Each structure stands twice: as structure tokens, then as C-alpha cells.
Known about the structure:
Distance between the termini: 88 Å
Strand content: 35-45%
Mean pLDDT: 89
Amino acid sequence: MAVWRVVVLLVLTLAVGVGWGYLWWGREATRLTRELAEARAAAGPREYHAEGVIRAVLPEMNIVVITHDEITGYMPAMTMGFRAVSPKIYETVDVGDAVRFTLRGTPPNLALVAVEKVTSQ
């Protein structure tokens, strides 16, 4: 068999293999996306509790920035802003307050629903 025929056969084999893999992965990615959406919908709203320190209160943006400990089952310790469900939350806290707080919703769309100052003993 001539060398050029071997080369053409190899190139065609690779092209068919890559094309088949691309089509298979496209179907698999669609299935995984659908399963992820179904799992998120089935999970429903959740509630998380954590402690932290208020770093900023931004009522004009509807955000309270908190440096928090690990939120078990959701995220590691970090500083981030949380959307508050009620303007009353802004009235109960000041920058620097140590707080216990509650987040509610379906991840990643959680909202700050309760904040309680922690008194040191």
C-alpha cells in the first residue's frame, strides 16, 4: 500500500473519531445541563445560619457586607455582600457589629432574612 494511502486513511480515521466524540460530548453536555437544572429545582429553598462581622451597610444597593465564618454546607469563610429582604435589617446593625445571621433561598440566590447582634460575655 502506498504511503499516501496510509496517511489518508489515518487522517480520515482521526476525523471520524473526533467528529463522533464531538457529537457524543454535545449530547452528554446537554444531558448534564438538564440534570443540573432538575437537581437545583428539586432542592428547593434552604436556610443557612452563620456568624460574622458587619463590614458595610449599603441600603441604596440593598446589600449588607459581612465577613463571615464558614457557612456549613454552602461556602467557606469570606467577606461578601448579601441582599437583604427587609429595610429593617439596616436599622438593627452597624459597621463592626458581631452578628449571627440567617440566609434563605435556593443557592446561589440567597437573601439575608435575619440578623441578630452577638454580645460578648
